[in-house]
Amino acid sequence: MESQKQHPQQFSLEFFPPKGEEGQAKLNETRIQLAKLKPRYASVTFGAGGSTQAGTVETVRQMLAAGLDTAPHLSCIGSNENDILQLLHGYMEMGVTRIVALRGDMPSGMRETGAFQYANELVAFIRSQTGDHFHIEVAAYPEFHPQAPSAEADLDNFARKVDAGANAAITQYFYNLDAYLRFVEECEKRGVEIPIVPGIMPITNIKQLARFSAMCGAEIPRWLRLRLEAYGEDLRSLKAFGLDVTTELCRNLLEAGAPGLHFYTMNQIEPTRIVWANLGLQGNV
Ligand code: FAD
User: Fold this and answer.
1) Is residue 117 one of the residues assigned to a domain?
2) pLDDT tens digit sequence for 43-78
3) Minimum-distance ligand 1 atom for the alpha carbon of 169
4) Structural domain span for residue 269
5) Domain count, the chain
6) Is the pLDDT assigned to residue 250 strictly greater than 80?
7) Is 180 within the bounds of a domain?
8) pLDDT at 246
9) Scanning 67, 158, 164, 241, which has its CA 20 to 30 A from the CA of 221?
10) Å from CA of 119 to ligand 1 middle
11) What is the C-alpha to C-alpha distance for residues 69 and 77, in angstroms, rounded to an integer?
């Protein structure tokens, strides 16, 4: 973990573009409340293939107007160079200086991959078109990407994104501390020393978590799944236990030298606020 300890710890929050008036009102309140934590920046997800792309731009605009340093996610699958360039120029005009560069997943029904096959190509394209304007974050998978042919290949592919010009990485969420520590160690062996910030999914709901985890390849350890399932309909106790487990994971990560935490807020106030308070985080002061 030596490579990680050299970086200052940064704490950031992720949001998704809301749907409808109710979703917008909820996000407005969440943004107001979580801005008080003074995160280093907020990031806003982006749907591949057009589903929430306009929503991302609008949400980024709102976050910036509220005084939050904001990083749009940008996924490239299904896009051509011109689409990406237009978004990049639009973001530069808005004052955006950070971007989370991703491949994304092909929406069902879409066949053309477009100009970019993998995220390393997007990172190289952003650098070639905009130089050092953007601080580029990429995705990392301590438990490995579900489509990777092997752990080794996935690590090599992660290193390609760094070679292409990524400044930092945010991980897929995970509940196995060792997976993260080993991943960082393997990166160090490849000479990769950028900050690899753990992505944190606060546990509040077992059904939703199980569904997400099956899709993205994040493991819910057996002991944890059984404990969560045992709460049945007692969602209050499940949430209290889940947030304790999340806090403990974060504490262990920070003690091991992780360069911060990136919270998947799911546009909710309480889970992130509780874990943040449990950890005594000061935010970006
Ligand atoms: P890549 O780094 O391109 O990797 C994808 C797969 O291809 C891996 O298996 C890798 O091993 C392999 N690979 C990579 N490069 C090569 C290469 N050169 N040659 C051969 N194989 C290669 N999705 C969204 O649609 N919108 C979002 O806003 C979003 N935000 C995310 C934020 C974070 C922090 C994370 C961790 C994921 C996010 N995702 C998002 C999901 C992400 O788009 C998917 O996990 C997607 O399947 C992979 O994206 P990637 O950028 O990691 O792809």
Assistant:
1) yes
2) 999 985 555 788 999 999 999 999 999 999 999 999
3) 34
4) 2-205+239-278
5) 1
6) yes
7) yes
8) 98
9) 158
10) 6
11) 26
